[in-house]
Amino acid sequence: MSSVTQRISQVKQPYGGYIRPSMFKKVSFDDGITLNAEENIHSSIVGLAVDYLTRFMVSGNILKSFEISIRGAAIAGEAETAGALLGRVSGVDSDSVVSACKLAAFDVWYRDYMYPLTHGGTAEMNPDSDTISNIQTMVERSRMFVEEYGPVLEYGFTFEPDGYTLTVDAGDGDFLTADTLWDFKVSKNKPTSKQTLQLLMYWIMGQHSGQEIFEGITRLGIFNPRLNAMYTLDMQEVPEEVIRAVEDEVICY
Fold it and tell me: What pairs with residue 234 in β-bridges?
């Protein structure tokens, strides 16, 4: 049994990927801001902090926005610490950003239990001023993006009751708007075939889930606030045989 991302690392995709990244249409944005070149914490934590702070800024629901972090903290026996950190998150000021990064460090306890046994925890999670500034800019870009292309109908979505399988039994997505399934990435690089497969798996699992909210989803989308770029693909452009192959060979329905 694997999560979506774990399963992607296990399978060998066809040459170029099940969905070639070049199939996605790119739209770039320009706010005149250049991000700082270096950050002093792991990119995965930066990405989670941007994601969760954006969810909070959009929804106002801090418990839902940091739900995975809270679960991870409970597993780690640090529920009280997480509660104190949540109380310090009020927006995108420096203290909120630092607290969000420390909270995001608890995710590994929920997503990958072995990781925290060999890595440092929240005490070592101290973003410097350049990192804080980058996170603030990326959250603002994400907020503006959602304002333009939203509203968000669901965030942190999962695929109960029928979307998971014995092969892929975990995985949660970022945002759903009226017709698009969105994933937020903060990589310095353009989308990869692993990322496009992740989106396709989410779409297929949504269709199998039995949840009505996935019925009107006809597009896949990536927004990268680091690159300040949007990538979209109409599902009508994805061959039916590709969808069947991912259903049968990757998710294993």
Answer: 219
By residue range, what is the domain housing residue 54? 41-127
- 183 in a structural domain: yes
Whose tokens are 């350049």? That residue is 130
19 contact partners, CB below 8 Å, separation of at least 6: 193, 196, 197, 199, 200, 233, 238, 242
Domain's final residue, options 75, 101, 127 = 127
Residue 117's pLDDT is: 45
pLDDT tens for 74-96 read: 988 999 999 999 999 999 999 99
Of 127, 150, 172, at which residue does a domain stop? Answer: 127
Cα gap 87→84, rounded to integer Å: 5
d(CA 219, CA 25): 11
Q: Are 173 and 4 in contact (CB under 8 A)?
A: no
User: In terms of domains, do 20 and 73 share one?
Assistant: no
Same domain, 85 and 186: no
* Three-state DSSP state, 92: coil
> pLDDT at position 25, please?
98
Q: Residue 138 contacts by C-beta under 8 Å, 6 or more apart in sequence?
A: 35, 46, 50, 186, 225, 226
Query: What is the bridge-based pairing of β-strands 229-234 and 219-224?
Result: antiparallel
Which pTM was predicted? 0.92
Name residues of the chain where pLDDT drops below 70: 111-124
